[in-house]
Structure prediction request, 74 residues.
Amino acid sequence: MVPEDLLSLIEQTGFDELAVTFEHATEAARLPLLHRDPFDRMLIAQARLEGLTLASADEAIAAYDVEVLRVARA
Prediction:
């Protein structure tokens, strides 16, 4: 269940919102098909272009040239 004040809670964490841009979409389309999930490919593209670290438990993401912070699956 999603709390009613989820957006407020997120804002309190200090995280910044990252919109999906045409540049991100183009980068995602250019990625080799090592990972078939389009949402994950968009996250990879954003991380690469923005110089961000991607937190994920998905080992397939490490096949791309992107910094990954490995997290355990719950």
Remarks:
- The beta strands are 54-56, 68-70.
- The longest helix spans residues 38-50.
